[in-house]
């Protein structure tokens, strides 16, 4: 899409990453979860120390999604030991793909997914996988539309609550 670009996040952009991460997660999940659990997750998952460690990992990559000069979303990909579950050297995990709510419906999520798919092909991955909350029907439909299939489930801890994430994957070969 015209006026959209994707750039790799640098260590100097951690505050921007923290800001977009917190905002998009809150917009996506606050309505269906307790304020306490959301707050606890935001503090833990988006601490500057944690984001710095993740950015420095050679097996994790963060990308900003820009609309003109505004960051409107981001992507986090994991390979190797940075994957949250499978740790398969021939797989890439999409751990996070988020777009600001005001930009939903503008095909930006598709652009970001296509970017991740291209990276997976460049890295000769056999498949892409991800976890998606069982109650996030919009995201599940999006991934199914892009060829992902359910293959398992796991527990995702949001604050003090244990939730079910569907694990989905798409073969690339």
TrEMBL record:
The keyword Acyltransferase applies. InterPro entries: Acyl_CoA_acyltransferase, GNAT_dom, N-term/lysine_N-AcTrnsfr. Keywords: Acyltransferase, Transferase. It comes from Paenimyroides ceti. Pfam families: Acetyltransf_1 (PF00583). SUPFAM superfamilies: Acyl-CoA N-acyltransferases (Nat) (SSF55729). It comes from the Bacteria. Residues 4-173 form the N-acetyltransferase domain. The keyword Protein biosynthesis does not apply. This is GNAT family N-acetyltransferase. Gene3D superfamilies: 3.40.630.30.
């Amino acid at each position: 899409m015209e006026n959209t670009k994707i750039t790799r996040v640098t260590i100097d952009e951690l505050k921007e990453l923290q800001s977009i991460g917190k905002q998009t997660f809150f917009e996506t999940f606050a309505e269906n979860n307790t304020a306490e659990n959301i707050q606890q997750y935001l503090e833990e998952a988006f601490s500057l120390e944690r984001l710095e460690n993740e950015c420095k990992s050679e097996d994790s990559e963060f990308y900003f999604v820009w609309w003109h000069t505004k960051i409107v979303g981001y992507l986090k990909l994991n390979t190797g030991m940075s994957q949250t579950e499978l740790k398969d050297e021939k797989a890439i995990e999409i751990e996070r793909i988020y777009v600001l709510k005001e930009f939903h419906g503008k095909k930006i999520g598709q652009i970001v997914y296509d970017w991740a798919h291209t990276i997976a092909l460049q890295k000769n991955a056999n498949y892409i996988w991800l976890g998606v909350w069982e109650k996030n029907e919009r995201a599940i439909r999006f991934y199914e539309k892009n060829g992902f299939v359910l293959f398992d489930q796991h527990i995702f801890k949001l604050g003090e609550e244990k939730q079910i994430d569907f694990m989905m994957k798409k073969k690339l070969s």
